[in-house]
């Protein structure tokens, strides 16, 4: 299951903050009819926070910064051993994301462009 919550608030006419939190708990069951085997496995719950700050320099320009934690669950075929049983040593990958950028309108909003740098 997955639970997600996000809040967004204006600190002023120019500053906005967004914060989010995601909780993921994944479990699965394997029925191997060839081996007459039934296995269950679950990963520990994963919390993924996110925080963004936006600065509107004008109605046509916005600068932003975002930091978050993400994860990637293994594919089903990655969780199985060569004999068809669950490999409990395979775990989700975790990482941190940082992004800064801008969103811009030009020529009375006839042209829109964005740029971003991230790691």
Automatic annotation (TrEMBL):
Its main location: membrane. The keyword Repressor does not apply. The keyword Kinase does not apply. It is found in: Cell outer membrane. It holds the Pfam family TonB_dep_Rec_b-barrel. Keywords: Cell outer membrane, Membrane, Receptor, TonB box, Transmembrane, Transmembrane beta strand, Transport. Residues 4-119 form the TonB-dependent receptor-like beta-barrel domain. GO terms for cellular component: cell outer membrane. InterPro entries: Beta-barrel_TonB, Beta-barrel_TonB_sf, TonB-dep_rcpt-like. It comes from the Bacteria. Belongs to the TonB-dependent receptor family. This is TonB-dependent receptor. It comes from Flavobacterium circumlabens.
């Amino acid at each position: 299951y997955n639970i997600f919550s996000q809040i967004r608030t204006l600190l002023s006419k120019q500053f906005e903050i967004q914060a989010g939190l995601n909780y993921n708990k994944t479990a699965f069951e394997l029925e191997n009819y060839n081996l007459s085997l039934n296995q269950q496995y679950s990963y520990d719950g994963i919390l993924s926070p996110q925080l963004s700050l936006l600065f509107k320099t004008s109605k046509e320009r916005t600068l932003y910064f975002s930091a978050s934690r993400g994860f990637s669950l293994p594919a089903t075929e990655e969780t199985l051993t060569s004999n068809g049983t669950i490999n409990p040593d395979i775990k989700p990958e975790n990482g941190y994301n940082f992004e800064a950028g801008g969103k811009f309108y030009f020529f009375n909003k006839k042209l829109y462009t964005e740029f971003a740098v991230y790691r």
